[in-house]
Amino acid sequence: MPLNLSEELLAIIVCPDCHGDLVPVETDPATGAGELVCQSCGLAYPVRDDIPVLLVDEARRPD
Ligand SMILES: [Zn+2]
Predict the structure, then answer these.
(1) How close is the Cα of 39 to the center of ligand 1, in Å?
(2) pLDDT at residue 2, as a whole number
(3) Which of 9, 16, 36, 46 is the most buried (most CB within 10 A)?
(4) What is the pTM of this model?
(5) For residue 50, what pLDDT band results from cuts at 50, 70 and 90?
(6) Inter-residue contact 22 to 45 (CB < 8 Å)
(7) Which domains does the chain have, with CATH numbers?
């Protein structure tokens, strides 16, 4: 599992903005850093120290 996130966790969490499914995306293979990308609205939430930061204020807006 990328980003060291458990499948159990991924099954539970949803986008706090639109409640869409979140998919883990590795953004830096060297460090294992990544984001959780909403499949509905496209917001990308950071993952810090293997903890998803599900805050709209912290999310990266899609281009
Ligand atoms: Zn969303």
Answers:
(1) 7
(2) 61
(3) 36
(4) 0.87
(5) confident
(6) yes
(7) 2-58 (2.20.25)
